[in-house]
Amino acid sequence: MDKLITGIHHITALASNPQQNIDFYTGILGLRLVKKTINFDSPDVYHFYFGDEVGAPGTILTFFPFEGARKGQKGVGETTYTAFSIPKSSLAYWKDRLQGLGITHSTPISRFGDEVLRFEDHDGMGIELVANDGDTRGGWTYGHIPLVHSIRGFHSASLNLRTKDLTEKLLTEAMDYMFIGEENGRYRYGTDGKPGDIIDIVLNQPPTRSVQSAGTVHHIAFRTANAATQLRVQQILWNHGQQVTEVKDRNYFTSIYFREPGGILFEVATDEPGFDIDEEIDHLGESLKLPDWAEAQRDKIAGRLQPITLQPEKYG
Which domains does the chain have, with CATH numbers? Predict the structure, then answer.
């Protein structure tokens, strides 16, 4: 039987300064700004989507940048590290790039046969680059990072929990995940075990309780094909005792939300319709896009947003 959930769709985090956020993820990491829109619940705050050329599910890291927000705190009940996939041969390139840009990073960490670089953005957001040979996706570049070394999309995400049993049961019984293995207290799950669908559970690393603010993940979204499969997932989650929201329209996908047993906010988002419904692929992210209900207030909303510029070549 085909799986209803097929991996990670997107991960959404909180940030502080919008321009610094744009600079880091387009300039330093080389992700494409796929969409520039607003936080539907707080229209005076941007919502940035970064990803590959088309914003394919499994590549999309999004941010709500709240100007002046204090740094949050990593801890239990949070997705503490978001890992991107790079080619195995690109590890040295990225070590040199980060060092040259003054970004402190770990020595390579061995994990499930791959080498991992760990570092943080300006807000303290935990980022990892996983050098591996298992990713067949093409990369994206603005030109300042060689295409051969470009980020391919997500590799995995780390959930920091006090206990794993109930979350593991949810993943494996209701969300099409399977247990892959354990290494040094890290428990790995995947739908197929490929980069872009991997979830790791680590216990009490760090042991403090998370504090959500700039530099922390707000939620992690899992992908499903369309509205029909989403409704099937919703029913399965209800049957497993999850308090799932109604379907919410996010313009570029529809979403349902619930909290897993450890307190982390989960979402299930559709692959359809995608990010090219209101901009041509060659021009994604160039204009401020608003939902229909906000168009009448465009001038007012735009006037409250801090102007930003896209200049990834500064970090070439």
Answer: 8-315 (3.10.180.10)
